[in-house]
## 1
Amino acid sequence: MHSILLRIMENRQALKLIEKIQKELFKDNFEVSEIVTDLKKLREITLELNNPVVTKALRLAYEHLENNNGFFIGIPDDEPIDSKDAELEVKISDENNVESFNYFLSLLTDLEKKNNVLDLKEYNKAFLAY
């Protein structure tokens, strides 16, 4: 599984897309239609990884952006709750949360870190609960 996860980091095209979006965010340019297009391209690249968490995260992210014209999910807590019985505490932002979106993108650049994949799962739960 590690070699599969490693491929996204090695895929220059994927990293270039992530970097492009992050550069635009840094310049305070949050153009939803452009971001959605780039996330869709990124998702196509990651489909061959056979990593459902990443594929789902990208789809849910661009759907969230399309439907809400912004990113209204907060950064997940440092320690995600593993218990299935625990109540899901979704972090919702009142305004476009560029910092959280940038963090979401950064998770995709290093999928070897278990915590990054766990945080992507938390984002997925939050997207679904939003």
## 2
Amino acid sequence: MLPTGLAQAVVVLVCAVWAANFVAPFFVPGYVSDPQLNLVFMSIVGGALALSRSRRRDGDQ
């Protein structure tokens, strides 16, 4: 299992890449993001957040 700190770092990193992917079409002409990437980003962030919250609820910080 991922330690809580590592899970939070993964969330921050994936959110940063997700945000960059979202704004890239504004700065890079012709860039088209694959819509399925949003599903991948949501799955990673959701899973890591659920993992860190369940551990926090169980008292493992």
## 3
Amino acid sequence: MFARPLSSNFWFMALRRSSLRVVGLTCVLVLGSLVGTALHAQDRGAPRFGPAASADTVVAEPSDAGRLWSTADPPFDRFEERYEMEADSAWATHLRRGLLRLPGCTAALVSAEGLALTTARCVRQHLEAENDGAALVAEQRADERSVPALHADRLLRTTDVTEAVRAARQDTTRTQAVRSVEQRLQAEAEANRRVEVGSAAGAPYTAYTYRRFEDVRVAFLPEQAVSAFGGLNAAMTYPRQALDAALLRVYTAEGTPLAADHFFEPSTQGARPGDAVFSAGASEQTHRAESAEQLAVRRDLMLPVRRARLETWTRAMRASLDTATASARQHRALHEAERALKQTRARLEALQSEYVQTRLQRRDSLLRRALREDSSLQKRFGGVLDSLAAIQEAKRTLASAYRAFGRFGGESRPPSGSSTYRRILQPRRQEAAAGASGVEETTRGTPSAAVDRGRRLPAPVEIAVLAFRLDTLRSHLYPDTAAVRRLLQGRSPTQLATAIVESSVLAAPVDASAGAATPDVPPNDPAAAVVDVAASRARSFYEEWGRLSRAERQLTRRLARARQAIREVPVLSSGTNALRLTDGRVLGYPYNGTITPPFATFFDLYEQNRAFGEDGAWALPERWRRSASTMDRSTPLTLVASTDGAVSNGGAPLLNKYLELVGVTVGPNIQGAAGTYIFLPERMRTVAVDLRGLRQALTAVYEAEGLVDDLFGGGAETTDTRR
């Protein structure tokens, strides 16, 4: 087997495992007593996002910023003190080299022959529609299925480029300086190398050099009925009973499996309650550096708008799919939108929580006090909170226009808006021809034709979402009744939307090869009046909102640096997709007046199936029903850990302190969905598939002995299933 390049201290710690288990048990008892104290104050009406405490007892805590660390420079002292372990640069190198970055996800190398573990959701989204949710089990490598849309980036090295960025910044902006250094390093790199330069709210700057592998094949993928067991109702919840795991194999350009010099071996013991665990992977952008005033605007304006648009889109698409034949792509789009709606509702609920609001306000108060007490920091960062508050007030004056013209929820995925409405707000061809530079500056931020992919929504769905946008436009125009009459011309928003979708030149997708400009609209076109009323108003809104947003981004970066200056806080995720590290423990949490256990077993899976029956999202495939009598159903299937969900989503490995594999993370619980704003370790948890559950499924259900040998090294069953 592969010999991991770990330090002698690391091996010494491994020899002390038996004695450390005694310490671990003591930690479990202490943690249990702490949880029990918190639980005592809970009742079934307790809020999701904080204890039932009055506002004057709420304090800002260092944990608000999360547990997100640089893989290039982990906080070894913290790990050693908190978890009674030893870690050094060799530990960090082994961690980095065992990771793979997939499009929007993470994977972990788990064998010396290129086998990698990730989630089923990360893989299935790249498969063609004809797979139709079926399982893929490759007993032989010749049976592995190629996925052209999937690639894997492996981190080769990290380099401090802070001085290079500072030198490049002498006569340009920070963003341009970073881009300049990145482009220079990319030009100097070898073939199949990708260089990315990133930072967290300023220096230090790190260059990440990846090697890209284009040949990635599926070795194992469970049925979608099992990987998404319970459907939308079970998504982002816990206890969760779903085998959301998949195995890939990475191949070189020569067609041979990647010979991995670093990979994560499976733990022979498995995770236990209270165990220290680590997870690493591509980080998601968060808004934790933002002020309470900024997040209040998200709460009062941006999130409600996104929720309303998603509700309209999903309701219309669901009704359409119930009455007409739909493609697999449309079903996936609906599932994605429904999941986004559930997440949006949870995030809005968190920001509406009095406990969370007070904690955010106290955090800003502590920052103001710290700046007043340090003249040098006051000189650097004084006034940043007030400047941000002024921008938020200006944004609130644009609330009505945001509802009418805002960027379709602020995110391109999932689509929740009307492509026809986007084309209505785009510049016309004659405007583009009049002066490219002027139009570009004026319309920057307007909906782009690039979003048109040649895929049209079913007409009833497009009509519903367009009618919703026309109704918000009507509300925005009041009390200008003349503009409203000119807009609707005696018709309701639904009637006007129907006419536009059925006969307007703007109803057809724009050919991206023709540029972003849309066709000219004839005077008799049903959309002509809407273009006349809305287009110029929309461009004025985009210009003003864009100006405010650019200033806000610069101030938010200053605010992040201020928070880091007054106290040692974790890395703040900037959404650069850099690999980050997080730590925590396998730990349950207060839930519905009780406490949820840290593990869910196959018993729970079959009980849910029995309770809900064989219809719908709780049905099990035939092979799973046949295996019920022979499977060890006491085996843990999933677990929860208190790691930071800003990194522990979508295939990041869950590792013990010896960097042995114990699971693969699949996403947050519903409380963790709000982790983009604040980290609350009392209740936010990361859900993971337990490696023991994956082994049990591969053995008892799929009889994939070859994959079991490849992943676990062959030999007798040694995995401890005790919890």
## 4
Amino acid sequence: MDSLWHASVIVLVLVFIGGSDANPAARRHGQLDVNHKKQPLQTSRPYNIAHRGSNGEIPEETAAAYLRAIEEGADFIETDILASEDGHLICFHDVTLENTTDIASRTEFAGRKRTYEVQGVNMTGWFTGM
């Protein structure tokens, strides 16, 4: 119940902030400011978007990769979000785990190997969630 209340408050704050107008005087008088043009966040240089964090030297989609991207001056961090089988949201790019973990060598997970059709192709492996 507390988490629902907190979520409701957060949504209301975001709606209030997102719904605010750059010209409050026009809003008070019921006018629409048609001459107001939205400006991009910045125009002096291209955006630096960190794809899955700072990949290459640090495993992608990890907190360390995100922190490194911030240290390197990233304007935005692009990530992939998947839901695990138990409903937790995780930042992970691949549909299966064997390319980025040692799951194939872990006998306790042998029974979780599955075959699913993914985008028209049968794939066998340890899936993040389906």
